[in-house]
Amino acid sequence: MLELSGIGRRYRVGAEEVTALADIDLSFPAGSFTTLVGRSGCGKTTLLRILAGLEKPSEGEIRRGGGKLRTAVVFQEARLMPWLDVSANVGFGLRGRVPRPVAAERCAAAIELVGLSAFAGAMPAQLSGGMAQRVAIARALVQEPDLLLLDEPFAALDAFTRRTMQNELVAIWQRRRPTIVFVTHDVEEAVLLGERALEMQGGRMVGREAIALPYPRDPTDPDVNLHRRAILSRLMTTPTPAAA
Fold first, then answer.
1. DSSP assignment of 223-237, as one string?
2. What crossing angle do the helices spanning 100-113 and 129-141 adopt, rounded to 10°?
3. Among 12, 71, 96, 177, which is disulfide-ready with 147 (CB 3.0 to 4.6 Å)?
């Protein structure tokens, strides 16, 4: 269980103070899949960075279920090291931390999990955008994280590749069961992936949608559309909070 209580984040921009997050109270049960959805600039990425430990909140408390969580992050861009092949990119974070035979075994398993075993020796320049993102996901999974954070990882992909990657991510989650927090501005994506969607606007939580639909989910399913419309309705009609 990961719990946030009264989380806020403020920045100083020149002479002005900007509130990026305010009064965030959330819990993420172990093994859950949560999507964060909202317009650009609503605070989603700031919240994800706080969960990752890349930023500190200005106020509030984070409780991590009695111990330190192994955390991995996947960004919108794959950010692969161009001088290393796929296997070396995936295993880079294991260097010096685990014995080489163990690292090699874990890398091979993670690469197989994302369907790229045939490309383990390929260089990043030889990969498509979708394949590069699979490598980025494998690089996160090889850490065997308790908490997997993804910041719009499929935003730059074409529609066909994005749908494939969405299905693959759900399949990986079902097999491994890390706690996943997935940031997106795409409401349909939020519904297709999450067990629940948390709606953000102006640095605050403005809605929560429980999505009790079986996987894999079909964008043409009327139930998917019902959830999508409910989220859109709240995001379109909720005034931007003054704190933003």
1. HHHHHHHHHHHHHHH
2. 130
3. 71
User: Taking Cα atoms as reference points, which of 164, 181, 88, 169 lies closest to residue 129?
Assistant: 164
Q: How far apart are CA 138 and CA 107, in angstroms?
A: 8
DSSP character at residue 23: E
Q: Which residue has the tokens 């935003």?
A: 155
Alpha-carbon distance 199 to 235, whole Å? 7
What backbone torsions phi and psi does residue 51 show, to the nearest 5 degrees?
-60, -35
First-to-last C-alpha distance (Å) of the chain: 28
**92-94-97 Cα angle (round to 5):** 140
pLDDT digits 0-9 by tens, 31-51: 999 999 998 889 999 999 999
Alpha-carbon distance of 236 to 115, in angstroms, equals 39
Rounded to an integer, what is the distance from CA 33 to the centroid of its chain? 9
Model-level pTM? Answer: 0.90
> What does R_g of the chain's alpha carbons equal in angstroms?
18
> pLDDT, tens digit, for every residue of 105-128?
999 999 998 889 999 999 999 999
**Is 194:34 a contact under the CB 8 Å cutoff?**
yes
Spatial contact of 229 and 191, defined as CB atoms under 8 Å apart: no
User: Is 86 in contact with 135 (CB distance < 8 Å)?
Assistant: yes
